[in-house]
Amino acid sequence: MASFTVQLCSHDTPIVIDCDAYAQESTMLTFFQYGSNCTTIDSWSRRVASFRTADVTSVIRAEDAYRDEVPVLVAC
Predict the structure, then answer these.
(1) CATH class for domain 2-63?
(2) For labeling, which of 7, 22, 52, 63 is most exposed (least CB within 10 Å)?
(3) Which of 7, 6, 28 is nearest to 16 (CA)?
(4) DSSP label at 57?
């Protein structure tokens, strides 16, 4: 699994850990862990964190970069 660093307009940089992918859902940018044995976001995927799309300026993916960090669960 990967980790993502999210840069927000407020200059906060939350780290979302142990996610496989992210996708835009209406006005939200949502991070997911894949469900079952697939490699796509489907009905078995678990939502890990969501951010308002208007607040996100960039997303950076890092493979296993933050293993010592505490997972972040955020709903804005």
Answers:
(1) mainly beta
(2) 63
(3) 6
(4) E
Per-domain boundaries in the chain: 2-63
Instruction: Please write down the HEC assignment for all residues of 17-47.
Output: EEECEEEEECCEEEEEECCCCCCCCCCCCEE
pLDDT tens, position by position, 44-63: 899 999 999 999 999 998 87
For the record, the structure tokens of 66 come out as 């933050």
Any residues with CB less than 8 A from the CB of 74 and at least 6 apart, and which? Answer: 14, 16, 49, 50, 51
Cα(47)–Cα(27) distance, integer angstroms: 15
Supply the pTM of this predicted model.
Answer: 0.76
Distance CA 33, CA 58 (A): 20
Q: Are 31 and 47 in contact (CB under 8 A)?
A: yes
